[in-house]
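Mods, move this if it's the wrong board.
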Amino acid sequence: MRMNRRTNMQRLMLVVIAVALRLPLTGAQDAPNGPVLAKLSDASFWTFEKFRGEGTMRVIQSGRGDVIEVSADGIEGMAASVRSHAFPVEPNRQYVITMDLKTDGLEAIDANLTGGVYMQFWDAQNMQGSYQPADAVSTPAPENSEWHIVSQKVTVPSTARTAELRLVFAAFGPYTDKLRPRDSGRAKGRLWIRSVHIEASDRVTPLPSTIRVSDPKIQAAIDIVAECMHNGSLNGIFVDSDGYTDSSNIVPDISFGLYGVRRQGQAKYLDILRKQWEDLGASATADGRLPQRVMSQILFPIGVDEIFSFTGDRAFLAKTLPMADRTLDYVNKRADSNGLVRLVDHGKWVIGEGADWVDWYPTRMEGKTFNFHQWYVHALRRMAALHEEFSNTPDGRSFASAERAREYRKRADQVEQALRQLYWADDHFVTNVDYDGKVANQRWMDDQMWAIRFGIATPEQAGKIWAWVDRRPQELEGVPTAWAAFDGPEHGTKSWFGRTGAGDILARYRSGNPARGLALLKRISEVFARDRNVYEAYKMDGSVVPGTLGWGNYTEHCGGFIMALIGGPFGLDFDSDHDAVATFAPQFPREWTSAQAEVYVRGTRIKVEYARTGAKATVTLSGEAGAEQPIRVVLPRGGTQLVRIGASGKRTFDLSEP
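Not the wrong board. Structure tokens:
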């Protein structure tokens, strides 16, 4: 049975005190070879938790020590596990969990894990963290087996401080009304567990960030984000966050994670995401519908472009470009005379699966939302650029379509014009022109910020938006950036940084206001550095929003932070065109004395090095490895020039003030 509220509070206080004073917890202690677990018969250390269905647990005495017997004989089966008391763990340490297991008719009903074990982590703020192994890499036990050893290796995230062990009868099932997949999986039959041990194994070092800046606050945040990206990929795939260890949703969580990974120099992470993108593309239906949220239809093609811009792998592009075309075809076929699309009809939405990435508010869950369409324009233009480039290549290895490129360009221009005209309301873009056939005239901040970043907003429109935003700095940008600039939405006054704040920072730099962009970058850096983690949501005073389910190591916000940093002060844009595969328009702040970044441009590793002494400032692009790539360089006072950077190539540019 589950612990009551008082027992939960007592346990919570013990954990907090133990972590703060570095004391051992009841039933476990720090040891050279790992935590020591209490006997399985110790009811003060082990708790049986039943989540669905009916069944029993009992402890049997044997010559080999205590044995846990769990059984569920009914046709409904049972979702259940035996949970340990919390015990300290060492960050970035691997532990090997072993136990003896025997089964009799153990049959999974909707569980992906039976007769196994996983570890649930808690962070330094005693907020619940991720678990390992995740649903995606779990396997069921044999249906009938004699005693055998089960072994599971887990890696402690850098943010974790304590953990609980879960000895699983059945887990990792579907979402239910009240249960997450971790707890919901059911099985029937019987299993026995004995001789449970944990031993410390190797230490794991997170991949360091490839970005360095002289600002200590921003650098602290960069390092924390690097660790969080490491933590988000410990199961061999990128997951949304600690709270969503069971999800690799690309709308927008993993997409933003990709945007961040793409703007760093860690090829290992890109390889993981490349595999996730290939698998998702292969899962599309014959007409191009992807089995994720609606907005995946356009974020998938954008991801294809982002991955190719990093790797330059033509084989990957030749394989995935047709997949991206099919996902866009699914959208294009449903367009009206203005090019606008309704993929969710009135009243047909469910929480978590709306028309764009606001998956909890009615006006953005159906109809023709502004946000979906501005990213649709971006997707169309990126696919058009790839089709133009690879429809007639000099080496004759063409695999794209010039006709598709023209169609995509035409559709993008049509939708952009509709957004500027049909959605504009004096000083803001409305969020939906087809909410049950009516206009939803609401000021959502992400609508406005990304419209400026993508150039959907004209300069005049952008100026009108900034006018009212700048009158409400603490209310809307206390922590960049509030979701809504109107009363009503439950989360409207909160920041979901990747979706809102990253767009705000990039929009500021595009609008010629780098000082404000830098101030917002510093503010979010302070918050990340304070917590030594990246949480799902923040209030405008910087405090963590309680009660959200995403918790820490939030992949979307980590990616959004790197996206804002590299696209803002570093001024790197990886959208290719007829002349260049990337554009470098640096806007380094005068207060920085140095900055470095390593990035990949179509397989070529390039190092960016900035240095300032007084009024003298220079930036150097150095090719570390790979073929020459055409890079457009836009200097504040030096005009625009096209340079080619490859292995051993180097160009230095003067950024000194007159």
